Amino acid sequence: MEIKDTYKTIDSPGEETLFKDRNSKFFGYTFPVSSEEEVKRYIENLKKQHHSARHWCYAWQIGSENYRYRVNDDGEPSNSAGQPIYGQIQSFEVTNILIIVVRYFGGVKLGVGGLINAYRTSAQQALEASKIVEKTINISFVIHFEYKDMNKVMRIIKENNIKITKQELELNCKLYILVRKRNIDKINEVFSPLYEIKIKRLADQ
C-alpha cells in the first residue's frame, strides 16, 4: 500500500472575497498558518482593519498528519459560523490554514440557516480565491559522522536528492536533513551498513 505523504495548503494569503445577503456583508480571508500565535496575529490585524464590523468568525487547522483545529462563532448563534467555515477546510482537504469571515450586520436577521449558508459560502469563495498547493510530508533527521566520512555521506545525499537544512562541519560533523516520508525506509537502509555513520530521526515538528 502506498504511503500518503502529501497534503494541501496555501503558501500566501488569498484574495479578499465578499458575499452579500440581505444587506449583511461577509468578507472572506485565508491565511497560511503553522502556529496559534500566527492565528492570533491575523485575527488582531483584521479586527483593526474592520474595526466597525460586528463579528470576526473563523476556523483553523494545523498539522500534516495529526491535526489540531479550532472554530469560533464570535457571538453568532452556536455552530452557525465557525463550524460551516471549518466544513469548507475539510471539503477542500487543506491544512495549515486559517479562514476568517468578517460580518457587517445589515439590519436584517438571517436566521441560523441563513447564517450557516452565508458563512459556508464565504469560506468557499475565499478558498476558491486562494492558490492551493500540494506539499510533501517530510521527516527531519540528523546524521553524525567524522570528517573522513564526508565524501561518503555527501554522495548518498546527492544520489537520493536529500535536502540539507543545516550543517555543523567540524571534527565531528552533523548534517540536518529532510526526508520525504515514503523514502524513510530506503534512507535507513542506505545508512545502516555504515556503522561509523549514525542517523537519528528528530522529534516530529
From TrEMBL:
Gene3D superfamilies: Impact, N-terminal domain (3.30.230.30). PANTHER family: IMPACT FAMILY MEMBER YIGZ, IMPACT-RELATED. It comes from Aquimarina mytili. Pfam families: Impact_N (PF01205). One of its GO terms (biological process) is regulation of translational initiation. InterPro entries: Impact, Impact_N, Impact_N_sf, Ribosomal_Su5_D2-typ_SF. Belongs to the IMPACT family. Residues 22-127 form the Impact N-terminal domain. One of its GO terms (cellular component) is cytoplasm. This is YigZ family protein.
